[in-house]
Amino acid sequence: MRIWTSEHVFDHPWETVTTAAMQKYPNPMNPSVVGVDVLQRHVDAGGKLHSHRLLSTEWGIPAIVKSISFTNLVSVDERLVYKPHPQEPDKTVLTQEAIISVKGVSLSSYLEGLMANTISSNAKKGREALEWVINRLNAEIEEFAASARGTMRNSMAAAAFAEK
Length: 164
Description:
This protein has three helices and five strands. It has helices at 14-22, 63-67, 108-163, and strands at residues 2-10, 36-43, 49-55, 74-84, 92-102. Helices cover 43% and strands 28% of the residues.
């Protein structure tokens, strides 16, 4: 068993980052992820959202594992925790952890290392994807606001014209 961990700080508030996390797929950084199935979701007594999701992809298993049919002996349990930054409220801390287990083969430690490297690379792409989603959401908000301002201007102009 190998445990991989990472921490990253986003320059966006928690609400923005978690909204983007729920809309992360599909994205151009992770084209192999075609969908996400929510297997279980609940809010605990402390108000924390727990979501057990399954990605529809070949995302984290190196080619060597797939090629020698060890997929039924491989387990990856990933956990992501998003928290508001303790000192800077406009930032969010993401802590990621993956527990990788390869059982029943003599190369298990080697394969776990390969998978940890793949997970690390994919985590970077995942953070880039969140930034992409955040930028897309911000652009949509700005477009909506501009459209609303235009509609208000047109309504005000029409009202002013009608008064004359």
